[in-house]
Recover the amino acids of this structure.
């Protein structure tokens, strides 16, 4: 009788064991590559040339007009910063080799998408003191991020900022003065 | 030479139990296999993809086989679950993407009688709780059934991957096919 009970118990236990759910599995690896997208494109105004050819220009400078505008776009998948600085300490005369102080040139930064001024008038600096013209720009493509540097030379407002006075007061030798300006895009 | 009567009774009893056991438990076959579309890779290389995300439609194909001859008093159906190896898509620099940002959509072939019905599939975010997983397909028909399913994947819809670190992120999805009892 005891063996019968034991047999029943074993049978019951075996049923419980087979009462478990049966399963199978398959594994699928998933990967996501986030590539860097960080592009700055100068759309127009890659070569700005001011012509000073009368006393009025020497005293009041050359105000910004459409021909003195550098338009650039940014495409970035992350928030970004843009810095501006000149390559050399001064504008260098190509003929006589004289120099024109950087601070005679200034710019306003304009947001073309928002149609609003982004940064107030500032003077141009060299690479020892780059100016951050866009801080934490929002990630997006070129249609979201189009900006403009609106250049001017020796205007009264710039004379105040630079404390250099007018071009005339600086008695600058006639020459063709050049410099390169870097517009540098980086991840915020 | 001859066994005692009580031993013979015991042997007969155990034999009856053995056959009864097979009758009750029957044959059970449960198999899930990926027939194509492995691995799954998303490559974000344009701003448009960052803005809108990437969908991989009909990327992975799986075959599900369930053959459970046990009575309905034991088996009530089957389910397909999606688990993940971790709660995040991970990368080498420690940055992460929550696994729930990865969504899947399982599309059974026409004629499937379970849930979701063909044509009524929805995107399902994977579960950050890796112990719980996410049920993605189920049916109550468990005798000699074989279904082929297409699996869609998507991530980054709504621009959720903008401003993430530029890295290679990875995780495993574990599809588990199981009987329900």
């Amino acid at each position: 009788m005891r063996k019968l009970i034991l047999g029943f118990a074993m049978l019951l236990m075996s049923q419980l064991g087979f009462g478990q759910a049966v399963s199978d599995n398959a594994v699928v690896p998933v990967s996501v590559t986030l590539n860097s997208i960080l592009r700055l494109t100068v759309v127009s105004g890659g070569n700005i040339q001011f012509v000073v050819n009368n006393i009025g220009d020497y005293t009041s400078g050359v105000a910004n007009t459409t021909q003195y505008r550098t338009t650039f776009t940014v495409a970035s998948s992350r928030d970004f910063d843009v810095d501006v600085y000149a390559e050399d300490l001064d504008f260098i005369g190509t003929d006589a080799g004289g120099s024109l102080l950087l601070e005679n040139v200034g710019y306003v930064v304009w947001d073309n998408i928002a149609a609003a001024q982004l940064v107030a008038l500032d003077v141009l600096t060299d690479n020892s003191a780059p100016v951050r013209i866009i801080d934490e720009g929002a990630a997006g493509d070129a249609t979201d991020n189009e900006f403009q540097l609106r250049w001017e030379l020796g205007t009264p407002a710039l004379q105040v900022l630079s404390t250099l006075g007018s071009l005339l007061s600086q008695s600058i030798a006639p020459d063709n003065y050049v410099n390169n300006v870097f517009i540098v895009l980086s991840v915020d | 030479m001859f066994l005692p009567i009580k031993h013979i009774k015991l042997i007969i009893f155990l034999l009856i139990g053995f056959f009864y056991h097979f009758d009750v438990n029957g044959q059970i076959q449960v198999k899930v296999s990926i027939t194509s579309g492995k691995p799954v890779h998303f490559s974000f290389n344009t701003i448009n993809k960052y803005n809108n995300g990437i969908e991989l439609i009909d990327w992975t194909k799986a075959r599900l086989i369930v053959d459970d001859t046990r009575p309905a008093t034991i088996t009530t159906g089957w389910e397909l679950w999606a688990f993940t190896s971790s709660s995040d898509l991970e990368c080498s620099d420690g940055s992460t993407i929550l696994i729930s940002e990865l969504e899947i959509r399982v599309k059974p072939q026409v004629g499937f009688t379970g849930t979701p019905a063909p044509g009524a599939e929805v995107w399902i975010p994977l579960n950050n709780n890796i112990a719980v997983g996410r049920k993605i397909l189920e049916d109550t028909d468990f005798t000699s059934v074989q279904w082929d399913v297409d699996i869609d994947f998507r991530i980054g819809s709504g621009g959720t991957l903008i401003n993430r670190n530029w890295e290679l992120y990875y995780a495993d999805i574990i599809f588990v096919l199981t009987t329900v009892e």
Summary: The two ends of chain A are 83 Å apart (CA to CA). The first helix of chain A runs from residue 2 to 17. The domain at 38-187 of chain A is CATH 2.60.40 (Immunoglobulin-like). Chain A has one domain: 38-187.
